[in-house]
Write the structure tokens for this entry.
Amino acid sequence: MSMAGNLRKVTSLGKAGGLRRVARLARRRRRVDLSHPARSPLGSSVVNCVSYRDGRRVPGGGDLVETVERVRKHGDGFVWLGLHEPTDLEFADIAELFELHPLAVEDAIEAHQRPKLERYDETLFAVFKTVCYVEHEELTATSEVVNTGEIMVFTGHDFVITVRHGRHGSLGPLREELEADPEQLAKGPAAVLHALADHVVDEYLSVTDSVQGDLDQVETDVFAEAGARVDPGRIYQLKRELLELKRAVAPLARPLEELATRPIRVVDPEIQAYFRDVTDHLLRVKDQIASFDELLNSILQAHLAQVTVAQNEDMRKITAWAALVAVPTMVCGVYGMNFDHMPELHWQFGYPLVIGVIAVACLTLYRGFRRNGWL
């Protein structure tokens, strides 16, 4: 029988004998370890499936049905199922097994959601926006600075399901850190939810520190000697990337506040204190982003002011040279008229006199413009 068929039968796990029937069906086929994505019968979207008891990983492999059966049979511990960009077909039976709400399932599959926290009976559904800094040698008008992804988390009394979207944000290192701290992991699925939130916000801090470097570089270039020649597209691009970071960070404040202050069944009060610490870190990131945005506005205005000043200087130079050219043009234009009775027209020294007057006038204007800084 297929894995999908077995999972449909697990919907009766809450009824007497439901787990026994699933177990008998599961024993008829070869066991497959879900911790290896390439061998997962649910498809390549399954990254890992592990159960924990008293903060420690339960040894032994097994498929999802066996893992859930083992946890619910003992009545303690929980299952952590990790998925990466699952399809509708891959997630349908999992949703049926854990009785997930259809609206939350739809959001988890479609992605492109704002950070939020929703309650569906005994299940929490949280959406976190993940970000990573894109390394680049030099910031240009088309450089990608911030790349975003998403992590959806279903949290129940005996399970945690993480659905990750995007090329970054692997949760493998986070899982290892939690397993190295059994005391914290023993606090249940809420401890995993806190660790995920803390991990996401820590990435925000790391990205803002990296963006600070780009911001400092742009500021240095603008106020350098050749600052007027800085491409304004670099500033606009950095503002756009900063806006994308802001969209990921700002909406998360309210969900974290709910997790830190409001009573939630699946979140132990002791864990709520940890969420308050995450909220403080998030506020720090929001303040940094706001200050970055204000500084970029100031840099852009300073750059435009520099461009305006440079243009005014160019106009003054052009005007000064035009005035210098206007003197000989005027004199030559007067003496170029075909009149017989003009002063000094037939005088032997008339030509040298006119040339001398032109030279003295141009030299006087040139010295005056240089003294005033126009040339």
